């Protein structure tokens, strides 16, 4: 990709896959005559590299994130959640991915970044739904289990 851009700018074709590719081939591009264009290609490559490193870091991070399973008081029921530190990391990672989606250098990694956006959003949505369901269950559990009146009415 970047080599092709350099060849387009210089209008010189080189075979970078040729085992004989050497510094002489690079010099033949006369890159010194295209400082601004070469600078743009280098800047693009650096930004794409940074994006790629961020994606690798996201993958490494989320491979090892564990959910918490805490036993509910006075029952055998376990409640699932994400620790505060991991929840904050989820929010931070969503912001990072959102920033990547707005980047002009997205095209190379668009599929992967879109996947991360979808996955992190799904995790956040599911955690929110689980939290709400568990909160409601805990509230109702005290009404049904703790109430003598309800116990009399229910078979």
Name the average pLDDT. Answer: 90
Succession of helices and strands: HHHEEHHH
By CATH, the topology of the largest domain is Butyryl-CoA Dehydrogenase, subunit A, domain 3
CATH superfamily of the largest domain: Dynein motor heavy chain, linker domain, N-terminal subdomain
Helix content: 55-70%
The number of strands is 2
Count of individual helical segments:
6
Distance between the termini: 71 Å
Tell me about the biggest sheet? 2 strands, antiparallel
Beta-strand fraction estimate: 5-15%
Shape: rod-shaped
- Helix vs. strand class: mainly alpha
Outline the low-pLDDT stretches. none
* Number of domains as seen in the coordinates: 2
Give the topology, please.
Elements: H1 2-10, H2 23-27, H3 35-63, E1 68-71, E2 78-81, H4 84-101, H5 110-146, H6 148-153
Antiparallel strand pairs: 1-2
Briefly summarize what is shown.
The chain has 155 residues and is mainly alpha-helical.
Any overview of this molecule?
This protein is rod-shaped. The N and C termini lie far apart (71 Å). The chain folds into 2 domains: 46 residues, no CATH class; 91 residues, Dynein motor heavy chain, linker domain, N-terminal subdomain (Butyryl-CoA Dehydrogenase, subunit A, domain 3), CATH 1.20.140.100. A hairpin with a 6-residue loop joins strand 1 and strand 2. A two-stranded antiparallel ribbon has the order 1-2. By secondary structure, it is mainly alpha-helical. It is built from 6 helices and 2 strands, in the order H-H-H-E-E-H-H-H. Helix 1 runs antiparallel to helix 3 and helix 4 runs antiparallel to helix 5. The protein is 67% helix and 5% strand. It comes from Phaeocystis antarctica.
């Amino acid at each position: 990709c970047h080599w092709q851009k350099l060849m387009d700018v210089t209008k010189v074709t080189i075979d970078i896959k040729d085992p004989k590719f050497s510094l002489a081939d690079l010099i033949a591009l006369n890159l010194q005559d295209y400082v601004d264009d070469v600078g743009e290609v280098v800047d693009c490559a650096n930004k794409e590299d940074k994006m790629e490193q961020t994606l690798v870091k996201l993958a490494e991070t989320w491979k090892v994130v564990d959910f918490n399973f805490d036993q509910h008081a006075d029952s055998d029921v376990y409640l699932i959640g994400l620790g505060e530190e991991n929840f904050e990391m989820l929010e931070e990672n969503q912001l990072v991915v959102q920033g990547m989606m707005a980047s002009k250098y997205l095209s190379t990694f668009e599929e992967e970044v879109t996947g991360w956006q979808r996955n992190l959003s799904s995790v956040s949505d599911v955690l929110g739904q689980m939290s709400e369901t568990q909160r409601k269950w805990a509230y109702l559990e005290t009404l049904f289990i703790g109430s003598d009146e309800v116990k009399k009415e229910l078979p």
